[in-house]
Design a protein that fits this description.
rod-shaped; about 150 residues; mainly alpha
Length: about 150
């Protein structure tokens, strides 16, 4: 009868001979969390500025509507009030759309800047990790070869 081999022991031996750098994984997780925090900050800042623009726009529109809704003595005054309201509202809309565009532009620039910095950091960390893994594997191979 052939003797059964203990594969669990063999797998433990094989896996034990490969060095694992858990610090690199921890660092990668921390860096990803930091990037997410920065990106969230950009998004929250944009949301706050957008809410301010919307609120201001709404207040201006309501104040102009109050003027339109006042009773007039002449029928022509109603037409003039509506024309003035439409003209002022178009001007305010253009200003506010430009303000929203500025917010979007800043978000885009900040996001690209963060992602470029993160990419550079990841490239540097990957280079270090690969070099360390190569050095560790070389050392493990030399050790295994010398043990034979």
């Amino acid at each position: 009868m052939a003797k059964a081999q203990d594969f669990n022991t063999k797998m433990k031996d094989v896996m034990g001979s490969f060095p694992v750098d858990t610090k690199a994984m921890e660092d990668a997780f921390k860096n990803q969390a930091a990037l997410n925090e920065k990106l969230s900050g950009v998004a929250l800042d944009a949301a706050e500025k957008s809410a301010e623009i919307s609120s201001k726009w709404t207040k201006e529109t309501l104040s102009k509507l109050a003027e339109v809704s006042k009773a007039k003595t002449e029928p022509a005054d109603y037409a003039k009030a509506m024309t003035d309201f439409a003209s002022a509202n178009a001007e305010v809309a253009a200003e506010n759309m430009a303000a929203f565009a500025e917010v979007a532009k800043k978000v885009q620039m900040d996001t690209v800047e963060l992602l470029m910095a993160a990419g550079k950091d990841m490239q540097e960390e990957t280079t270090k990790a690969v070099k360390k893994a190569t050095d560790d594997m070389s050392a493990a191979t030399k050790k295994a070869t010398a043990a034979k």
